[in-house]
Design brief:
Number of strands: 37
CATH superfamily: Peptidase/esterase 'gauge' domain
Shape: globular
Number of helices: 2
Distance between the termini: 16 Å
Radius of gyration: 21 Å
CATH class: Mainly Beta
Structural class: mainly beta
CATH architecture: 7 Propeller
Largest sheet: 6 strands, antiparallel
Length: 423
């Protein structure tokens, strides 16, 4: 069935919400360039003043910070940046805090001595969190082999920085895997590493031992939400069973289940249970979201609230403005703003795709669809992922159909009042 654009909604869906081009290819920024590519962007700070992305030139890479009003590069880190931990080259996973005050940034990079996880404090100073030379006692006193998946947040009283990350030690067959929570004063100082969970621990409810762990997200209270599963990699591919779990570990905490294979799927039949999950997304207010699939027909974005799990968008709902076109795919972890509103990339069953915002009060607003023109051109690709909404703005990666096939970062307003009734 062909998806049709609803006549009454043409003004909402056909024209994207207001936007600003923040950064794009073939431009020099701060002596770096011409830039050739960008990663999916993230938003920094409570009011969405800055956009962060790892970018690439022909011979170099850097982690850049751009102003969301389009005034250009605010700050960048590359191999020529002088820091207290040495020069850095190459940038991997990164994350930005969303709380009040100046943001903190956590990122994976390399120095001449080792690969490591670093934090840029709100003051601009760089601090080493852990490297492949760091010996971690809960891992049997072995140094980290790999580090990744960082998440960072600042406490509500602006005194402490929390950094959650994934680490491994040892060889693959005897590998220790864990999620670690680092804490340090907001102005720098001693870094404390605390174990959240490892593959030597058992999962709540099922009693099975954790095998895979990924996607840790930390809140301003130091709670860590993560994805875990109890199967080997090959079994996981076949069975797709996993347990997103919330752990309040920085105090003394215990593991609690957000959802697992024993959980009833909202909107499904009474016998339908979850069979797979993505990594979680977390808002500043602690709202947890994830994409999950049920054992029968339900496939949806779910949000944890005080009343339990609720559906944000599902394969039973129509793409806003497109008659007969239901959502079919949610490929990226959704973003959550400070009020628990969810912004996500969704694709319909006829190729219709876009970025949409779901409001606490219900309904959707459309930020952008692939029917829109941006800067006068069609979009070839739309990329939107986690931690990319703040202060009523959302950062989106786009590839345009112009002569240069320009790619870059645009910031769209998250429309506050235009709700679409779902059928």
């Amino acid at each position: 069935m062909k998806c049709l654009l609803g006549a009454s909604l043409v003004s909402l869906v056909w024209s994207a919400s207001s936007y600003v081009r923040v950064a794009h290819t073939d431009v020099w920024y701060g002596g770096m360039g011409p830039l050739e590519s960008y990663t999916f962007p993230q938003m920094g700070g409570q009011h969405g003043e800055q956009v962060y992305s790892a970018s690439q030139t022909l011979n170099n890479s850097f982690l850049g910070v751009w102003d969301t009003n389009g005034s250009g590069l605010v700050f960048g880190v590359n191999s020529s940046t002088s820091t207290a931990v040495g020069s850095m080259s190459g940038f991997g996973d990164f994350a930005v805090s969303k709380g009040p005050g100046k943001p903190a940034t956590a990122f994976i990079s390399s120095t001449s001595a080792s690969n490591g996880l670093f934090v840029q404090l709100p003051s601009g100073e760089f601090v080493e969190i852990a490297t492949t030379q760091t010996v971690f006692a809960p891992a049997g006193g072995a140094p980290f082999e790999t580090l990744g998946d960082p998440s960072v947040e600042i406490s509500k009283d602006l005194s402490t920085i929390y950094v959650a990350f994934y680490g491994t030690t040892g060889s693959y067959l005897e590998e220790w895997r864990g999620i670690i929570l680092a804490t340090l004063p907001v102005n720098g100082g001693t870094v404390s590493l605390n174990l959240v969970v490892s593959n030597s621990m058992t999962m709540p409810d099922s009693g099975a031992r954790f095998h895979g762990l990924s996607g840790p997200k930390v809140t301003s209270e130091g709670k860590v939400i993560f994805f875990g599963n109890g199967y080997s990699a090959s079994e996981m591919v076949m069975n797709q069973f996993s347990n997103p779990v919330m752990n309040d570990r920085h105090v003394s905490g215990s593991l609690s289940v957000v959802a697992n294979d024993l959980s009833t799927v909202p909107g499904g039949t009474s016998s339908e249970r979850f069979v797979s999950f993505t990594d979680p997304g977390v808002g500043l207010d602690g709202t947890v979201v994830f994409v999950g699939r049920g054992s029968e027909t339900m496939y949806a974005i779910f949000k944890e609230t005080s009343s339990g799990l609720n559906i944000v968008a599902s394969n039973q709902m129509e793409v806003p403005g497109y008659s007969g076109c239901k959502f079919a795919w949610f490929p990226q972890v959704p973003s959550v703003d400070a009020d628990g509103n969810v912004v996500f990339f969704g694709q319909g069953n006829d190729g219709v795709a876009g970025v949409f915002a779901s409001k606490r009060s219900g309904g959707f607003s459309s930020l952008l669809s692939n029917a829109d023109k941006v800067d006068g051109y069609d979009t070839i690709s739309i990329g939107y992922g986690q931690n990319a909404v703040s202060g009523g703005k959302a950062a989106v990666y786009l590839v345009l159909s112009d002569e240069n096939v320009t790619n870059g970062i645009w910031v769209f307003d998250v429309l506050p009042s235009e709700d679409v009734v779902l059928v």
